[in-house]
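Hey,

Quick one before I head out. I ran the complex with pyridoxal-5'-phosphate overnight. Inputs first:
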Amino acid sequence: MSTPGDSASRTIGVWGYLAEYERDRDEILAAVDRVFSSGRLVLGDAVRGFEEEFAAYHGVGHCVGVDNGTNAIKLALQAVGVRPGDEVITVSNTAAPTAVAIDEIGAVPVFADVREDTYLMDVDTVEDLITPRTRCVLPVHLYGQCVDVSRLRQVTGTLPVVEDCAQAHGATGPAGRAGATGEAAAFSFYPTKVLGAYGDGGAVTTQDVGTERTLRRLRYYGMEERYYVEKTPGHNARLDEVQAEILRVKLRRLDEDIAARRRIAQRYHEGLGDTGLTLPAVGPGNEHVYYLFVARHPRRDHLLKLLADQGIRLNVSYPWPIHTMRGFGKLGYRAGDLPVTERLADEVFSLPMYATLTRDDQDRTIAAVRDALAVIA
Ligand SMILES: *Cc1c(COP(=O)(O)O)cnc(C)c1O
């Protein structure tokens, strides 16, 4: 990530927002001014408007804006009935917050291994993980493509599905639009995401009006009416009005941004398809949105070092599987328990990917990767 002063013109990172801000500055600042001038700074027209527009975009009945993606997962799990001590089946090959959210509400993450081709939850292994304490399944639509939720349900039956859509805004899988195939779905608008705010934000979508009502209560201390906590105490997890108004602006360009990401992916495939790199495979029935463009090489660390020497700073998502982290030692997993997940952690890395990435930077990246691979070979 380039910061002012570190010769931004020479360093290429996996993500940056300054080119976007330069392009959209007037619209963004006008959105901020609309909120500040509205006379209402918390849970006003911006959050309400964004919720309606985001629900419509996904073709779902309801959307509840929250303060970040981690809380979106927490609230979604609680809204579908997950209680302390319950087991939630997910993957270890994801951002730590997926598991942190499960842990924070007192539930227990149970990890399925992932597929060697798409890096997504291996649905075929899920059946063996179901116990009498399993209360929910949390598939992660990793890197921008979707787990086949229909096939997952063939295995999990009536267990509620909560989708982790933090990386899959606008993606479509074999079961439909990400965010429209679970009992509830959690989104993050962390700035790097496919739809990113200028700060933190999140949302939960659902088709069920009862779930929506529970979510609204949970994000607002547990209250329906002001000053009175119903049923159970909740959280303070409101989406900020300023971020909501900025997100409304950015939602209008989301399809365009996704198209730009797909063009960049296409260019990487053309420029790197004949090298020894493993490039992303799109699963059947998937329309990938390329939150990340993740490649794979057995000598990843050496490759990244050579690239860093050329001013190309790439990133690894994710270098440590969650089940091997000290902070999750209490779960009792050992290295070797999830072989595909562990192998991927040693080999994957992400190429620069964001809608305003210039052609020049794409070409420089491709050339540098080719050079580095020639050195390694
Ligand atoms: C970003 C992310 C989250 C967490 O979102 P925050 O807004 O940072 O809390 C959760 N799950 C996945 C898969 C993510 O990529």
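The domain at 22-251 is CATH 3.40.640.10 (Aspartate Aminotransferase; domain 2).

Talk tomorrow,
K.
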